[in-house]
Amino acid sequence: MIINLNNVLWSSILLKGGKKGKKAAGEKGKGGKGAGRINGHHQENGMENMMLFEVVKLGRSAMQSVVDDWIESYKHDRDVALLDLINFFIQCSGCKGVVSGEMFRNMQNSEIIRRMTEEFDEDSGDYPLTIAGPQWKKFKSSFCEFISVLVRQCQYSIIYDEYMMDTVISLLTGLSDSQVRAFRHTSTLAAMKLMTALVNVALNLSINMDNTQRQYEAERNKIMAKRANDRLELLLQKRKELQENQDEIENMMNAIFKGVFVHRYRDAIAEIRAICIEEIGVWMKLYSDAFLNDSYLKYVGWTMHDKQGEVRLKCLTALQGLYYNRELNARLELFTSRFKDRIVSMTLDKEYDVAVQAIKLLTLVLNSTDEVLTPEDCESVYHLVYSAHRPVAIAAGEFLFKKLFSQREPEEEGAPKRRGRQSPNANLIKTTVFFFLESELHEHAAYLVDSLWECGAELLKDWECMISLLLDDPLPGEEALTDRQETALIEIMLCTVRQAAECHPPIGRGTGKRVMTAKERKTQLDDKTRMTELFAVALPPLLAKYAVDSEKVTNLLQLPQYFDLEIYTTGRLEKHLESLLRQIREIVEKHTDTEVLEVCSKTYHALCNEEFTIFNRVDIARSQLLDELVDKFNRLLEDFLQELEQSFACDPVHMCLNLPQICCSAHDLSGWDLFTSNFKLLNTGIENGDMPEQIVIHSLQCTHYVILWNLAKSSEGSSRKDDMVTLRKQMRAFCMMCQRYLTNVNTAVKEQAFTILCDLLLIFSHQMVSGGREHLEPLVYSSEDSLQAELLSFILNHVFIDQDDDTNSTDGQQDDEAVKIEALHKRRNLLAAYCKLIIYCVVDMKTGADIFKQYMRYYNDYGDIIKETMSKTRQIDKIQCAKTLILSLQQLFNEMLSELGHGFDRSSSSFCGIKELARRFSLTFGLDQVKTRDAIAMLHKDGIEFAFKDPSTQGEGGPPLNLAFLDILSEFSSKLMKQDKRTSSGRNVHMYLERFMTFQMALQREDCWLPLISYRNSLQAGGDDDTMSVMSGYSSRGSSVRSKKIKPPGATAGTSAAKRKLPEEESSSSSEVWQQSLQTPVMLPSPHLTSTAMRDPKRAREDSFMGTPQHHQTPMDYNRRGTGLMEEDEEPIVEDVMMSSEGRMDDLNEGMDFDTMDIDLPPSKNRRERSELKPDYFDPASIMDESVRGLLVCSHTRSHRF
């Protein structure tokens, strides 16, 4: 029997199998009588099996016709058709075996499955449900669709013949109990989809039974004259048949549930468990009368404790489908009371997808009834609106909105719409403010707004109501907002304006750049227009009302940065602009707070946009203000210098000295010649030594900005030659001034001088002439060796310190977590500033050795920065980078010798720490040995020279003082190419080692010579390179014990035959003795390859970190679960084998060239700090953009980048 596919797909399949078909025909002709059978099965049936499997694999377009053809074949010969279906399931499992007709007739299912298991390809773990690739992409959906269509087409006759379904269910039940994962996975999916299809059939039968019962009752209730007895008998017969079919379907479902589901919902494979839970959710949703009870719900509740996130996720999505239907809530009351606490705890799941779905499920529970969730349960979800993970925060925001904001005052029909303070949103906005204050996370208002934006944008964009709450008097009987509530409302209002104008989440919660749709862009433009029209009028009164409150003014003055400034002209709002400028001027004159003055400067910068017609008006106001400020600054500065001691406590002086620095950050003040006055002030501070730190810091910043603005003019080509000469002199004089301030007693002053100095050295380095700026070559400045040494000394003394030693945290705030995080940010900024100098060759790359040697000790704090620096330096010069790495190890080795002496124990923590650092350095070279060939060879040669540098104090018979360094150097042997170890190439490391060895050294076997023996072993040609790093991790005591064991004969037979050339001065008679002495008499045993799944995960990570091999462990059985297809059926739910190999995965990640690395910082209240520590520190765009003007912005925002 061949399926008759009367469609296009049939032709395409024949075309694909054309050659194969011709070959089969030829073979049949030659083979005679027996050629028509394959494995005892008719060939045409084999052709049909292939076609059935191919159709499912290619897609569902011909599914209906394929099923119809199969049904026709079943009606003609049900044994042949069932055999085809059985082979279809076998083939879908990836098995190459074929069930013959004889096997089908004479063998039990268990025997057939055992035979198929023997013919399974165990070399590969892939099967159709797991194979990747475009042709298998839709296989699972097509496979499920085939089963569904098959049952749907057979639901009126064939499934009740007590043959077809019994055979299929029996086969799938047996396969689902197999040890072969492919059989178990495929058959479980088929059985669950078959069950779902039967549930649909049972549901239809139930509906038909109810309809028949109603018809029967209606007919029976008629009067005798109108009652049709024939119709009653017909309806009774129909109801009886439906009941029999219903009972038969229920028996089938019970067989599948008890034979497959009950065993496989706790399978060792997470995918199989997920399939079971997903389908039982479908059954309870489709046929709630039969399945929505505690007998079935308990399986979902139990599985919510599964170890795998994908299974927990399926539990939650299944429950969401049930709670969404409010009619089912009554049946879920017992389940909710029993498993509610578990659902609430899953909102903090380590898998973010699970946490999101748990919050959504609680939102559905909240919609069904308010009585289930306690206030404590709700509060555990409320705080998640501040989560750094945006989907979690949005889900929590929806929950919060449903709980607090779903009830609003109804508006009367026909009544005018209430606005402002009388708006229905007024109470909701107050509720938002109250929640924000009670959450005690005031610095994260932007997070709260972003969480509520998708569900409550209409409420959050009611700026008219917010303005009314701030400006208008309260209504009779209404309680006015307190000062604290007004401050919170202004902050929330600013965040809503920013969110509407920028259309992206706040810092730390971004998911990457997303292209907005046309609808989103239109909404953005409309929002900017509306907010500008509202706040252009309301902002001056708001500033006038809160002019003396620094916090409120700071937030209000940020609003113009998001305005559409064209509205001032098109909306004829110039008078409101004049009022705004007056208010800003008054605020500048009244306030001394740096934050307020900075935001005033930024507001002027935002309004002074040459693209808009208001530019001239704003520019005049700004120039007038700057003239007054500079004049006042010069007068007070002169008085300040004359009467220095009396002016220290004078706040107006401090404020006026502060103003130029603030204005310089956003405005060009080069026309006022501030360099001379500030430089004079700085020089006075050096001479007196007791000037207030804030005045010095502001003067340094102001002078820095003046130089950058002058450089911006020079880069544009608008400056004269004299201006270039003046700028060169000013820059060099200022660098010398900053260098002098590096020795200041005040830490904040030193840090500011260091940061500015690093910036200037980078900006005025040789790279400033690139990009067509050759005319700036006279400005290039190269730092002297003394300055480089001073910068390095500053880094070592102020960055690589313990947290408790940080002197920046004073006044008893050492235990404050926020202070520690801030101090760490400052130190990271300082380190990143210096590392940029290394990367861009401003300082000698060798100075990086003092940085690299801190990699392990300060890994949590600076590991990502140091690793990125190593990566960038390797891209610049691989050989010099390798020299720097080995130099850092040599420095650590010398420090250890000065501390422990030359007789140290090689098992000491100091020596093991250096070896571990060398291992980490080795992993950073990656897997491509060709690219790093020269660098690795040079590294070994430098290490060998260092090891033999200092001769022994015991005379010629003693080992060199640094010989133990070879034990550290052996960590890099695995990175050498085999031909570079012993061949006669120019990179021959072994030959280079022999230059430093004497005849007596080759004969030594004492413990003190073990580093040389171990290192020479690692250079053996054809040796197992990968085991050398592990072998070198043994302690010296263990090594000495093993060295006394008898070597198996022939262990070095292959290597002993190798000959090498000796120096010309040595006699040939000693060649053989010399050659024999080079062979190590003892080969350290290689550790067995063991499975990390057989040891404690924590211990595994520790062992991997220390490089110590495990002893007396059972070798891994590769026939066990996770490596092959054969698996134990009765295993409990366990985690994947790879989950216990975290230590080795960390080692593997060390060898990958990532841009950044996640690091573990001290615990913080919120993840926002972590996200701010991961920018690209070494983006060249942050150094030199197309114009130096872009650089000014980078310099100004430095404190916000790290």
TrEMBL record:
The keyword NADP is assigned to this record: no
MF GO annotations: chromatin binding
Biased composition (Low complexity): 1028-1041
The keyword Secreted is annotated on this UniProt entry: no
Pfam families named in the record: HEAT_SCC3-SA, SCD, STAG
Region (Disordered): 21-42, 1021-1122
GO CC list: chromatin; chromosome, centromeric region; cohesin complex; nucleus
Subunit structure of this chain's protein: Part of the cohesin complex which is composed of a heterodimer between a SMC1 protein (SMC1A or SMC1B) and SMC3, which are attached via their hinge domain, and RAD21 which link them at their heads, and one STAG protein.
Name of this protein: Cohesin subunit SA
